[in-house]
Amino acid sequence: MLLADEPTGNLDGENSRNVVELLTYLAHKERYCVIIVTHDPAIAEASDVVCRMTDGILEQAG
Question: Which residue, 36, 10, 52, is CA-closest to 62?
Fold first, then answer.
């Protein structure tokens, strides 16, 4: 299991894409459970499952 809190927070665009690609590789090829907390909609879009927290309630989006 890999937990990542804002893994691209202070990175430029190219390095952000590299981090997202690495996390996706780990999840899909190495079968890690990757949990990412982010405010970045691009990272959420690249995710297999998206959950949102609203008023302290966690719900699966979509």
Answer: 52
